Amino acid sequence: MQKEKLDIALSFAAASLFVLLFVIAAVMLFRIYLKRKNKLLLEKEMMGIQFEQTLLQSKLEIQEQTFADISREIHDNIGQVLSLARINLNTIRSENDAAKIDLVDELMGKAILDLRTLSHSLDTDLIRNKGWSPPVQKLLLDLQKTGKYTTSCEIADDLPPLGSDKPIILFRMIQEMINNIIKHAGASDIRFTAGAENGRLMIRLEDNGKGFNRTSVAAGSGLRNLESRAKMINADLEIKSEEAKGTCIVVSIKTETNE
Q1: Which residue, 64, 67, 163, 165, is most buried by CB atoms nearer than 10 A?
Q2: Over the stretch 124-154, which tens digit does the pLDDT of each residue have?
Q3: Which residues contact 226 (CB under 8 A, 6 or more apart)?
Q4: How many domains does the chain have?
Q5: What is the domain-level CATH number for residue 139?
């Protein structure tokens, strides 16, 4: 009888110990789960803050570039047209000087058209409402007009959606890549393509410039900015470059439909 009581007591103690260990393990696992959950929430919050900061910086940079473009356009184009119109007005001797009057009318019409074009200059609202592709096409067309570059721009019609804010960051990335070509590549030919592949937006920018050693400039601030912005819009960034063989940059972006 005593042995049976002892066995029962030992069984009860073992069961109690098992339950106690199970509860302790469950509590520990729950604490680990909460800790990981809080860490993920914190990381998500930090990513959101970083995205907003990157978005704001991109907006400011686009506006700064736009103001510079407007200033240059007014100085080099519209100012010159208005100066010619003024000269012709000052040399009109009579109401019958029809040729000069017609020329002044033509010049004023051109100035008005140029001002209207400037009023629709690149800004974040335009990019948000119309998309990133029209300003990219305009940017490359303006480069072509300088006579220093041959440019091509092939953008598919069925581009996957990116939302309202990501296109601003994407356009700033493209703008920065093109500015780097202008400043550093010594290129004469720039080719841009964009289309959808397997539910992703694929963008390729190539030039025939002098290229560079990828490892020697890996720590450059320009490339770090591109990589940081790519991360903000869920994009993969691939840069291929060889000295004297040009550079190719590929941006692959996860879209709203497959995130």
Answers
A1: 165
A2: 677 777 888 988 998 898 889 888 999 999 9
A3: 173, 176, 177, 237
A4: 1
A5: 3.30.565.10
